[in-house]
Every structure is written in C-alpha cells, then in structure tokens.
Amino acid sequence: MGASIGPLGTLIEPWGNLSSDEASSVFKEQIEAVSKAGADLIVIEKMMYIKEAEVAVLAARNVCHLPVVCQITFAENGRTLMGEDPEAVSDVLEDLGVDALGANCSVGPDSLFPVAEKMSFKTHLPLIFQPNAGQPQLQDGKTTYPVLAEQFSDWMQKFVNLGVKIVGGCCGTTPAHLKTTVSRHKLVHSNLADSS
Asked: How many domains does the chain have?
C-alpha cells in the first residue's frame, strides 16, 4: 500500500515564510504516521518545485526505510512553478536516492510527454507518469476534462513505449481511462498506478 504525501500548500524559504526545518518536521510527522500504519511505499507527489520535494524526500529517509517515489508537477511550458526544467529535477531526485521519479497532475499527457522524454534521457531510475485527463474546463457549471479514455490510453502507450515503467492517471481520469488503457494495450496491472 502506497502512502501519498502531497505539498504543504505554502512556500519554503526563500520564496515563502516556512523554514526548511519546519517543513521537514511536518513531512516527518506525516511519513512516520503512515509508516507505522503499514505503508509499503512512500509516494511524494504533486510537488511544485525541487526544494519542497528535496525536503520531503530527506524527511522520508530520516524516519523510515521504505521505498520512495517522487513526482513533480510541471506546467504546460515543461517547467516547475519555480522554472526548473526536467533535467534539473531528475538530477536532484536521483542524487537524493529516490527509487522512482516522474511527474503527475496539473497538465494532460500531451504536455507531460516532452517532460518524460527529457527525463528518460537524463536518468536510469524507473519513471512514473500520471497526467490529468487534460486541462480542466468549466461547462454548464461543471468541471470536465477533455481527454477521453481512448485518447488517454493511446498516450499511455506512448509513455510505455518511451520506457516509462509506471503509468496512471490523476485529475479527471476515471476507472474507464485505466480500464481502457489496460484492455487496449494489454498492459499488466503492476505497471499501472492510479492517483486520485
């Protein structure tokens, strides 16, 4: 069972008022709790910049011996909130000794695929990618996502062909998106991850 550890919702110094020590303390408390509850894996996800990811990974390494996956969120321009590129993210996360790295949330598969390409050239670690079903849109007062299950599964096959080891979906993906991906491309469930 993987335990999801998300962003703190506030920026760490020098961009915000939260110190690295304070952030580390919060992450340690969460990770220690899920470790004691029986988690088999720590999934640090939706991190918007390297600094917060780094603090979270180090906190995990400090309080447990579980495998650690780390996923960063990229904008449509292929950079993090602080303007960091996929190559820099790969270097830092690999140096921190994560067990797998990649990206999730924020954008659709079309925007994340170039990020996956850059990371695949930069790291030897297993890659994990879980895009949204596209950018959210407001239609008749409801939030919808434009990437349909068949389109999503086609994109996931492209990620797998690139060498991404774990694929799945984030915001806007449904069980149909993942079921279609598995059935159309005969991907085994062990290579799929679902994040909600």
From this structure: 1
